[in-house]
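Customer escalation, tier 2.

The customer says the design service returned an amino acid string that "doesn't look like it belongs to this structure." They asked us to rerun it and document both sides in this ticket. The original structure tokens are below, unchanged.
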């Protein structure tokens, strides 16, 4: 029985500084219906707290504990491995997620790459290369090559990590979507199994492919970074919507989702609207 929704953030709820019509009401309605919500983003610059604050400022009712950023997920990945030390190559609030780790730029056990922006220069990348050649392990916070969320294409984390992989011969471990770790983290955090949750995203390769790899049903919303040709890639989402505003209707009327609990929630919601 469906009881949880994992939302991609950039491209589904908002994009390039604009909240999509119906997104705030959709989140609020699903919360009233009793769904467990998680907000999953490949952003590394944001911590859970700062991304939640941004959503709150935009009008969404979201708690920091419901947000999973790629930086937070990477910190959880490292926590499980209890590293001796790390070099966290990252700018922004996302660094707050790594406060429990010993930062070492000279002899780290892990080189951990996020969006380091202005520090992705010759000296820093060369230093990272030499550390990897000396035996450091390589972690990429997400595998995305390009980011369009600011309005113009920007090199994303995966581009820099692949450069280091090619130069050093060291295979990176990636954490963010579509990698299984971040989806498994969301399921654990929700206390749910794969059959009880649906992933809602705008990217076939990241959101849909990642969810399907774990057997999580997927809803593709044709907004954000979606392009018509994406549906020709051989990856088929379970459902396709034109707008996030259509999600409540899908979840409350489609027979694949409408278990006894959900039908009851739908009836309650409709009665509430009539009142």
């Amino acid at each position: 029985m469906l009881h949880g929704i994992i939302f991609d953030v950039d491209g589904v709820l908002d994009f390039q500084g604009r909240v999509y019509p119906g997104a705030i009401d959709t989140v609020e309605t699903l919360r009233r219906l009793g769904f467990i919500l998680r907000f999953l983003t490949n952003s590394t610059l944001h911590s859970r707290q700062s991304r939640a604050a941004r959503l709150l400022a935009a009008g969404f009712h979201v708690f920091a504990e419901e947000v999973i950023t790629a930086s937070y997920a990477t910190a959880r990945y490292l926590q499980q491995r209890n590293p001796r030390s790390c070099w966290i190559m990252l700018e922004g609030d996302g660094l707050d997620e790594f406060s429990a780790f010993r930062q070492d730029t000279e002899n780290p056990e892990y080189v951990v790459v996020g969006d380091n922006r202005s520090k992705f220069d010759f000296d820093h990348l060369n230093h990272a290369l030499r550390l990897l050649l000396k035996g450091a392990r390589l972690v990429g916070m997400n595998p995305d090559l390009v980011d369009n969320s600011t309005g113009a294409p920007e090199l994303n984390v995966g581009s820099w990590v692949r450069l280091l992989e090619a130069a050093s011969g060291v295979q990176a471990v990636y954490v963010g979507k579509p990698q299984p770790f971040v989806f498994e983290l969301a399921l654990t955090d929700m206390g749910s199994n794969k059959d009880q949750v649906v992933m809602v995203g705008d990217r076939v390769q990241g959101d849909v492919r990642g969810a399907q790899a774990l057997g999580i049903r997927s809803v593709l919303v044709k907004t954000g970074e979606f392009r018509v040709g994406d549906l020709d890639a051989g990856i088929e989402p379970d459902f396709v919507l034109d707008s996030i505003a259509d999600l409540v209707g899908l979840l409350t009327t489609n027979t694949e989702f409408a278990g006894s609990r959900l039908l009851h929630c739908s009836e309650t919601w409709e009665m509430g609207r009539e009142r």
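Tier 2 assessment: The sequence is consistent with the input. The chain has a mean pLDDT of 92. The domain at 4-42+177-274 is CATH 3.40.50.1000 (Rossmann fold). Sent an explanation to the customer and offered a walkthrough call.
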